Amino acid sequence: MAVVDVQNIDGKKISQVDLAEAIFNVDVKKSVLHEVVTMQLACRRKGTASVKHRSDIRGSQRKLFRQKGTGRARMGNIKSPLLRGGGSVFGPDPRDYSYKVPKKVRKLALKMALTSKLKDDELLVVDKFEFEQIKTKKFLEAAENLKITNALIITDDKNENLELSARNVSNIKVLQTKGLNVVDILKYKNLVLVESSIKAIEGRLLP
Fold this sequence. Notes:
By secondary structure, the protein is of the alpha/beta class. It folds into 2 domains: 2-45 and 100-205, Ribosomal Protein L4, Chain: A (3-Layer(aba) Sandwich), CATH 3.40.1370.10; 48-96, no CATH class. It has helices at residues 21-24, 30-44, 103-119, 136-146, 160-166, 182-187, 195-205, and strands at residues 2-7, 13-19, 123-126, 151-155, 172-176, 190-194.
């Protein structure tokens, strides 16, 4: 078991906590992390390229002129792709870039990301992160005491006062354990775990 110091929001050590070896001490493979990060970023990608096809254009369905006898090429209605303002023929439609990797691979990558933070000494455990009211100034004081300027903070349940207090602070993000993911862990320099969230993480990742 890895043993980590537990601090309060004043930056003082108050106890220690054991972290499960099966989660916080696994072999880190960059190829697995890369596979899951690529998948997550693809799922976040929005395929917004789009055109209007013939059926999407507003206009009369009336045939512009008779089929024969005019000397011109035959023509349908005003929504024809051959006319200015008509529908596009082979233009792009919104597409979905998302795909999935196996669940076991996603869980393994999450363990590797957590392990890397612990090995790099970038993981902090805080006993609780609670404020009586929404106050960004209070959060900044706590961040200064903990010596964090770029961090992902993980809570077990919704903590509205913390989330709103940290909302306008750059390079700080607050997530619940159910939203824990590889991209955000690797994106931020420090990972701050509220002590009560450790049990939730173990419940999610341990077999």
